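Comment thread on ticket #2218

A.B. wrote:
> Attaching the input chain for the structure job we discussed in standup.
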Amino acid sequence: MQEVLCIMIVEDDRSLSGEICDFLERWGYRAVSCRNFEDILGDFQKIRPQLVLMDINLPFYDGYHWCRKIREISHVPILYISSRNDDRDKIMGIAQGGDDYIEKPFHLELLKAKIEASLRRTYQYQVRDRVSIDENLMFDQNSLTVFYGEKEVELTRSEQKIMEKLIEMRPGVVTRDELMMVLWNTDEFVSDGTLTTMISRLRKKLEQVSGSKVIRTRKGTGYFIQ
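C.D. wrote:
> Ran it. Output below, let me know if you need it in another format.
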């Protein structure tokens, strides 16, 4: 069973904190936002994360202070997220025990890359790209496998390729022609009618385990996953 890695987010901008949380959870992490800015160390000890995202400008005490406090009890990687872009701030952050620094505004994909690099350096984890599809429903992009919790949902090779394409383009729409091209190199002969049957069968499998509609239709265009 793969361990779900926990990331603690120390960011007083609730909108940004929520956006980061949602993004990380879609990639299979457990993300917890700190709300008690008077006692971040106390939250850290309760949450026990594998990595901390730390803003510098915080109420009460700044991120440097809390980084020093965490370093007294833990070697967990700490990644600063800050609007301060002066080299002196970056040097200060690393000197206080931080592992990396990313300037606001940033692309979430860059944040993910930095997180995975820090996790690999610290724990030698081979980070697997598990994407959250729905509550308890995940797609592993390495093995092209769908899991409900830790139970694998049995899919054919063609169904796996359909899922891969839908996740890759999410939340965009994938046309039927695009899916036909994806399936061209599989062992199964695919006609227009066969594709309809495949989509219907895949939908049923996912709905049976999750209880919700996962693959949706954009009439006259194609299919998508929200």
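A.B. wrote:
> Thanks. Noting for the ticket: The domain at 133-225 is CATH 1.10.10.10 (Arc Repressor Mutant, subunit A).
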